[in-house]
């Protein structure tokens, strides 16, 4: 049990590392980590995942704000719809059996991982985008956040680049801000339904924060494409494990 707990905490630091580097990848690994390594039930893991990812994203956001990599007006539009979607998603979680949640999560992980592995070229930059498009992006990501306990950055970052026309570094910083707000709403919604084991949650959150801080060093040593490919294969492997476990 102790070995499993230590392994889970080490993996939590990797989650923070990925979140700090790419503004995504935290939640998509946190839920299976809590369920299969820490032994938490899927419903409880969703709420705990939101705390871990939200805390790590907050630390990364502070660094992004200092470097002026956050698009304020984009955050307002996306987060407004995202928080509503997160609240609705949290209510849906309680209506779905745990095994179905994990199956949906496993399939989603495979799709995301393969997409990241196959993404070799820079996406074209859009010129302008209407507030309605931002609301649709935010609402969809928020629904996923509340339902599965993920920050949604793995969908939000490419959407902001491809549809919103943001540069990659701006999309990452903006994504962290939206993730923080969505996770906050998700934690509030889930805590009203089921108690959160804070004694188990905070060690994971602290480990993830250390990973975010370490990302500032990793960013300078490896190319974005290499990190994205590594992350993609890690997500595919975890997705297959979730589906067969």
UniProtKB/TrEMBL annotation:
GO CC annotation: plasma membrane
Keywords annotated in UniProt: Cell membrane, Membrane, Transmembrane, Transmembrane helix
Location of the protein in the cell: Cell membrane; Membrane
TM segment ranges: 47-66, 75-94, 100-119, 131-164, 170-188, 200-219, 225-244
Membrane topology field: Multi-pass membrane protein
Family classification: Belongs to the 4-toluene sulfonate uptake permease (TSUP) (TC 2.A.102) family.
Protein name (record): Probable membrane transporter protein
């Amino acid at each position: 049990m102790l070995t499993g707990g230590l392994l889970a905490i080490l993996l939590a630091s990797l989650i923070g590392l990925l979140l700090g580097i790419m503004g995504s990848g935290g939640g998509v690994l946190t839920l299976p980590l809590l369920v299969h390594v820490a032994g938490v039930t899927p419903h409880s893991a969703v709420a705990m995942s939101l705390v871990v990812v939200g805390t790590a994203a907050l630390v990364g956001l502070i660094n992004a704000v200092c470097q002026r990599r956050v698009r304020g007006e984009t955050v307002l539009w996306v987060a407004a719809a995202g928080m509503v979607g997160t609240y609705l998603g949290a209510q849906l979680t309680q209506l779905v059996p745990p095994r179905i949640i994990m199956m949906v999560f496993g399939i989603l992980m495979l799709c995301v991982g393969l997409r990241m592995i196959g993404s070799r070229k820079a996406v074209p930059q859009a010129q302008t985008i209407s507030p309605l498009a931002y609301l649709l992006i935010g609402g969809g990501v928020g629904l996923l956040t509340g339902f599965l306990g993920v920050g949604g950055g793995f969908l939000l970052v490419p959407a902001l680049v491809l549809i919103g026309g943001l540069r990659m570094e701006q999309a990452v910083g903006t994504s962290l801000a939206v993730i923080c707000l969505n996770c906050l709403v998700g934690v509030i919604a889930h805590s009203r339904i089921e108690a959160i084991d804070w004694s188990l949650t905070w060690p994971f959150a602290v480990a993830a924060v250390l990973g975010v801080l370490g990302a500032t060093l990793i960013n300078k040593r490896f190319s974005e494409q290499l990190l994205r490919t590594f992350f993609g294969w890690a997500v595919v492997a975890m997705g297959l494990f979730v589906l067969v476990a």
